[in-house]
């Protein structure tokens, strides 16, 4: 009997290579959240901003290494955990594993797609207004917010008809190129121009010690949430071939090494150059994209501004494909479990249309969802920083092999990740309580 794993989108094709792994990792790892990094520097300052960014990068890279190693934890036994939830269940047990992993995994997949609709559609509207030169005529011809959401969703779902994760490697390549492109443009252009008058590098923390502490936590949260894609690492590794002589972890780690070198080359200059160019004038909402258009939009050609907007839209469309894949995989798994046969093409297409419709509906109903990203992102942060460390302890059992230092390191990082998650959730909730949540149900702007 054919292995049911071969019927599911994530594991249907296992003929990937280093290049496809790099494409997927870059497409899922670089996103518009990186444009907020200079906002964190405006609170933390040069020294602590650079230290926090370096620590966050090293920490999340270490947990990626753990996930890569745990994909095939026991050499010679052909057990591959090609989904984060599977590994969590293997480490924590069926009940606790599902309790800890289902929400963050589904949130980081489905909710990311919804936010991509909101952000991508918003930038599409800006691109349209730029092309028709603004004014009353442009506003009369423009679509409503919900219509822009629909346009973006239709484009994303039309592209989402590819059958499996390996088959969207071309989309991930385009997404990676576009992400690198707009990240490079958005920091290179400001430093080539005059800085706005009155730029200061003084910290804009709150006046009181309590307010200052929460501002620092919010800034740390921005840095931590700038690194994404841990919920897709095992899935990407699941597309690679594996054998006793050449296990998938070797190929995957080469892909991680290349891709995260590029991620560092994008995000570190973006944070440093962005803060140098705008200092504490950097807007809290929109980050570098808003700052660039606000301070340098008038002395930048329409072609260059349009190119930046276009690259952002292309990246959102490409990222949608890889972040939606775990949702498609889960829907098809339910079908296969009930029918005990491969999912027909028309059912597969129906699942994609269903998910697209649901994502569009939620985006229209909750257009303020990006405002909740720091809060919910803090809740899901253990999936990136803590759970991999605990899973390493439970599966590898280093303390039983005399590796006490490794056991202490992972236990310490895991506990620190949980504590940091709690603090970031409290800080985000306090920030929402002070500034308020402008909830406009079914009124996308």
From TrEMBL:
> Which key words tag this protein in UniProt?
Amino-acid transport, Auxin signaling pathway, Membrane, Symport, Transmembrane, Transmembrane helix, Transport
Q: Which Gene Ontology terms describe the biological processes this protein takes part in?
A: amino acid transport; auxin-activated signaling pathway
Which spans are transmembrane here? 21-41, 47-68, 99-122, 142-160, 167-189, 209-227, 258-278, 307-328, 349-369, 375-395, 407-429
Topology in membrane:
Multi-pass membrane protein
Give its localization: Endomembrane system
In its UniProt record, a GO molecular function of this protein is: symporter activity
Look up keyword Transport and say if it applies.
Answer: yes
The main location is: membrane
Mind naming one GO cellular-component term on file for this protein? endomembrane system
InterPro entries xref list:
AA_transpt_TM
Q: Where is the Amino acid transporter transmembrane domain?
A: 15-427
Role according to the record: Carrier protein involved in proton-driven auxin influx. Mediates the formation of auxin gradient from developing leaves (site of auxin biosynthesis) to tips by contributing to the loading of auxin in vascular tissues and facilitating acropetal (base to tip) auxin transport within inner tissues of the root apex, and basipetal (tip to base) auxin transport within outer tissues of the root apex. May be involved in lateral roots and nodules formation.
In which family does this protein belong, per the annotation? Belongs to the amino acid/polyamine transporter 2 family. Amino acid/auxin permease (AAAP) (TC 2.A.18.1) subfamily.
Q: What is this protein called?
A: Amino acid transporter transmembrane domain-containing protein
Q: Which organism is it from?
A: Populus tomentosa
């Amino acid at each position: 009997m054919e292995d049911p794993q071969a019927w599911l989108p994530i594991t249907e094709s296992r003929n990937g290579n280093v290049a496809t792994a790099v494409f997927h990792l870059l497409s899922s790892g670089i996103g518009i959240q990186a444009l907020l990094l200079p906002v964190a520097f405006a609170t933390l300052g040069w020294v602590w901003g650079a230290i926090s960014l370096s620590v966050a990068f090293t920490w999340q890279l270490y947990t990626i290494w753990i996930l890569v190693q745990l994909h095939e934890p026991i050499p010679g036994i052909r057990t591959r955990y090609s989904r984060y939830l599977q590994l969590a269940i293997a480490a924590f047990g069926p009940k606790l594993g599902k309790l800890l992993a289902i929400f963050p995994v589904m949130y980081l997949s489905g909710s990311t797609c919804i936010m991509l609709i909101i952000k991508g559609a918003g930038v599409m509207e800006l691109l349209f207004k730029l092309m028709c030169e603004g004014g009353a005529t442009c506003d009369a011809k423009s679509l409503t917010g919900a219509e822009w959401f629909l346009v973006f969703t239709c484009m994303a779902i039309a592209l989402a008809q590819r059958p499996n994760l390996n088959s969207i490697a071309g989309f991930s390549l385009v997404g990676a190129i576009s992400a690198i492109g707009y990240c490079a443009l958005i920091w290179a252009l400001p430093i080539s121009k005059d800085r706005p008058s009155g730029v200061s590098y003084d910290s804009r923390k709150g006046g009181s010690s309590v307010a200052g502490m929460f501002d620092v936590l919010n800034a740390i949260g921005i840095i931590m949430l700038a690194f994404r894609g841990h919920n897709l690492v095992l899935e990407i590794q699941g597309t690679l071939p594996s054998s006793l002589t050449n296990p998938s972890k070797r190929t995957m780690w080469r892909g991680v090494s290349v891709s995260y070198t590029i991620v560092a080359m994008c995000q570190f200059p973006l944070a440093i150059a962005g803060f140098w160019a705008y200092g504490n004038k950097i807007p809290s909402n929109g980050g570098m994209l808003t700052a660039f258009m606000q301070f340098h939009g008038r002395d930048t050609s329409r072609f260059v501004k349009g190119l930046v907007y276009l690259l952002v839209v292309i990246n959102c469309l490409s990222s949608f494909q890889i972040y939606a894949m775990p949702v498609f995989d889960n829907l098809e798994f339910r079908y296969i479990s009930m029918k005990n046969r491969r999912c027909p093409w028309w059912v597969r297409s129906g699942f994609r249309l269903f998910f697209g419709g649901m994502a569009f509906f939620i985006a229209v109903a909750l257009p303020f969802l990006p405002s909740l990203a720091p809060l919910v992102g803090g809740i899901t942060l253990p999936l990136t920083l803590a759970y991999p460390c605990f899973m390493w302890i439970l599966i590898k059992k280093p303390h039983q092999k005399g590796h006490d230092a490794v056991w202490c390191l992972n236990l310490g990082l895991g506990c620190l990740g949980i504590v940091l998650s709690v603090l970031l959730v409290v800080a985000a909730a306090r920030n929402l309580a002070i500034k308020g949540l402008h909830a406009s149900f079914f009124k996308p702007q």
